[in-house]
Amino acid sequence: MLMRAKPPGNMDAVRENPLVQVAAPAAMLLVALLWSALVLFSLWTQRDQLSSTAQQLARIDAIANLKKDMAIRKWASQVGGVFIDEDKAPNVDALSDQMRLQAETVTGEAFKMIALTPIHILLGIQEVSNREYGSKERLTSLQLRNRDNAPDEWETQALRTLEAGSEMVAEAMPRKGGHGLMRVMIPMRMEEECLECHRETLVPVGGLRGAAAVSVDLNTYWSAQEPTWRTIQYWHFGIWFAGLTTLYAYWSLLRRRAVEHLRQDQQRREHAAAFSAMAEGAVITNAQGDILWVNAAFCRIYGYAAEEVIGKNPRILKSGRHDDDFYRRLWKGLTEHGHWRGEVWNQRKNGEIFPEEISIQALRGPDGATVRYISIFSDITERKHSEEALRQQQQRLAESEARLRELAAFLQTVREEERTRIARELHDELGQALTALRFDLGWLRGKCGALGAPAADHVASALGVVEQSIVALRRISEDLRPAMLDSLGLAAAIEHHAAQFSQRTGTPCHVSMNREEFDLESSLATAVFRIVQEALTNVARHAEASEVSVQIDETNAGIRLNVWDNGHGFAIDSNKKTFGLLGMRERITMLGGSLEIDSPPGEGTHISAWLPYRETMPT
To answer: From 94, 162, 399, 474, which residue has the greatest number of CB atoms within 10 Å?
Structure first.
């Protein structure tokens, strides 16, 4: 069978799956770390480039300053120095008296002038540059003529490099707490015009006499890069955050897909397990009708092993009891509605034909085309046997009820006939005898004057008893079968009975009829009268009403009878077998009618009966 593994109990198994709980978050964290590292590397690279740019700018400026200084020195050497006002001369040593002279202005004002050598000019320029622009320019040499110009460790190494033939030494020097210094040194080589002043150094022409060095603070150049660096930081942060957001969204999507995949897989396993375990048979076929899967119940019901039917068409199960039109209707329902449900007679492997209730559902793909059919069926042989037994039992019960109703109707007819016979005999036999006795006692009372008062009293008493007996006889006769019902008809009999009810109980009884007379068959007329009689009897015994209304309406289909009273009512469920209601219901049921009683406690009672004509009664 397909998918026998036991499925997880609920969706907690999906949420607790390692793929969802561990693998996916770990992968997401790893990717986020890699992305952060990539952004940090790019940021570090950009900073390194900015730092390199700052160093390059500082190096270019330093070289330019030094070359400018050397150009000024060369010019000063070529012109032999420059005379300036002695009061404005820089504070330099070794200015000889031979380099001083007296001068006067065009106005005759005398002032002293002093000649600055090229080196003095260069030192003055460096002093101003160091003071005004923060750079540190100075001259240095391995030949110590001035202790203030003694080279430091870096300058010593740079001088040796220049002495070896290099034309420039430049290096960025780190410094704690800042971006460091850019140090540049260019050589000062002996030239012909310099021999006059520096012959004592014994440096030949073209030899290294010293060097001009400059130290530039890189913080100044890095500060110029700060806006660009902040912009780069902002962009990198935005890209990093956008990347993490995208990664999270993508991870969430993957996680949802993973959860959905696991949920669907779980559902498939649950459905497969449910199909396999359920008592009903299940079959899955492809769109061409080939069997793809069956459950254990199918094998149990049909007697086939799964391997015997997989790949075959379900027509191997046909019993031959259904014609082609049946299957055309089946496929039409599947095509139009996507499902079909009904009863089919199929055949087991052993040839036994049996009934089954089957439900077929078409599964459609995204394009709307049918890709699978799922059939669920159950063997209803036992149910069919039970239904047949129940049908036969119901038929026997209906026949018994019909016979009982016929017997009840016969007994009712016999009872009415017997009542009529007894009432007639009481009236004809006993009534006539009592009437004759009353006449004889009346004659005797006229002859008793001579016998005295006691005899007359006894005769009068006997006459009174006879009179009471005659009245009782008439009442009993009327109760058994009112003569007026046979002689004057239903309407007159009901009005007479209502009048007697009012006279006997003191409760007004109003009668309303839509006919002056009803042309009804005897059994129906008797039933209407008896229902009114029983209803008024119940009012007199139990209702304590102050008013009663009776309404009888004849229609083309039957008689509608309504009786109302304003008594205290009663609980119908607790009194459905009392107050003559049972007999009333039986009488109406035998005639194919219906009875409704509405009796809210304290609000009176309404009895409504419907009695159809004989031709409209159910058979």
So the answer is: 162
CATH number at residue 291: 3.30.450.20
Q: What is the dihedral of CA 575, 580, 585, 591, to 10 degrees?
A: 180
Mean pLDDT of the chain: 79
Cβ-in-10-Å burial (0-12, 13-18, 19+) of 452 comes to exposed
Phi, psi of 516 (to 5 degrees): -75, -30
- The mean pLDDT of 133-146, rounded to a whole number, is 73
Same domain, 217 and 122: yes
Same domain, 494 and 609: yes
Whether residue 199 is contained in a domain is answered as yes
- Cα–Cα distance, 515 to 611 (Å, whole number): 16
- The reported pLDDT for the residue numbered 6 is 39
- Give rounded-to-5 percent helix, strand, coil for the chain: 60, 20, 25
Q: Can you read off the two tokens belonging to residue 385?
A: 């046997």
Q: Does residue 29 form part of some domain?
A: no
Torsion of CA 333, 334, 337, 340, to 10 degrees: 70
Pair (609, 555) in one structural domain: yes
Domain boundary among 358, 379, 400: 379
Full residue range of the structural domain in which residue 335 is found: 278-379
575 or 467: which carries more pLDDT confidence? 467
Q: In the chain, what is the straight-line distance between the N-terminal and C-terminal CA atoms, in Å?
A: 57
When pLDDT is averaged across residues 141-154 and rounded to a whole number, the result is: 78
Q: Are 425 and 418 in contact (CB under 8 A)?
A: no
| CB of 87 closer than 8 Å to CB of 132 | no
- Residue 197 has, within 13 A of its CA and on its CB side, a CA count of 19
- The DSSP output letter for 6 is P
Give bridge partners of residue 112 from the DSSP assignment.
102
CB–CB of 497/529 below 8 Å?
A: yes
Which whole number is the average pLDDT over 145-152?
76
Residue 356 sits at φ, ψ, to 5 deg, of -145, 150
Give 20's DSSP letter.
Answer: I
Report which secondary-structure segment, H or E, holds 267: helix 218-277
- Which pLDDT belongs to residue 450? 59
Beta bridge partners of 286: 372
**Is residue 183 a part of any domain in this protein?**
yes
170: which strand partners?
Answer: 184
Q: Report the greatest alpha carbon distance in the chain.
A: 214
- The distance of Cα 45 from the centroid of its chain, to the nearest Å, equals 51
Tally the domains of the chain. 4
Kindly give the pairing relationship between strand 509-513 and strand 548-554: parallel
CATH code (residue 166) = 3.30.450
